[in-house]
Amino acid sequence: MLTMIEFLLPLMIVLLISLPLISVFRGKSSKHSAKLRLATHVSLFFALVAGCILFEANGMHVFAASTVDSVNQMTGSIAQGLGFLAAALVTGMSALGAGIAVAAAAPAAIGAFSENSKNFGKSLIFVALGEGVAIYGLLISILIMNKL
């Protein structure tokens, strides 16, 4: 059974992490507040990781493995674990790169299309190339997972 602190503490952590996003959803954000919000999210993430480590060290289980038997039943090798980590990194980093590419290409495509409507097809290709990076990363991730 979960104790009250094991139930409320993760709920409070999720609430504290999502709290800075309220101003974004209301539409009240400036460049300074965006930097502050980013710093808040990064610091809360590392506080969350530190809190999980402290709870596990004190015997309170943050994750689902609350019994010793379930930990002993896990099978797999270091190579499998590193393979899963590689698949996750490939997917995440390719999505991040695609987001950066689309953030640069989409406004330029909109500007080119607004000046001349014949530029729609040409500008759409550059936006699609940025999205292709994420699809290629997902494909590589699936290939990695099939090898495990």
Automatic annotation (TrEMBL):
Gene Ontology biological process terms in this record: proton motive force-driven ATP synthesis
Membrane topology classification: Multi-pass membrane protein
Classification via InterPro entries: ATP_synth_F0_csu (IPR000454), ATPase_proteolipid_c-like_dom (IPR002379), F/V-ATP_Csub_sf (IPR035921)
Transmembrane regions listed in the UniProt entry: 7-26, 38-64, 84-112, 124-145
GO cellular component: proton-transporting ATP synthase complex; proton-transporting two-sector ATPase complex, proton-transporting domain
Domain V-ATPase proteolipid subunit C-like: residue ranges: 85-144
Keyword line: Membrane, Transmembrane, Transmembrane helix
Compartments in which it is found: Membrane
Domain of life from the UniProt record: Bacteria
Listed GO MF terms: proton transmembrane transporter activity
Pfam families on file: ATP-synt_C
Family according to the record: Belongs to the ATPase C chain family.
UniProt-recorded name of the protein: ATP synthase F(0) sector subunit c
Organism: Copranaerobaculum intestinale
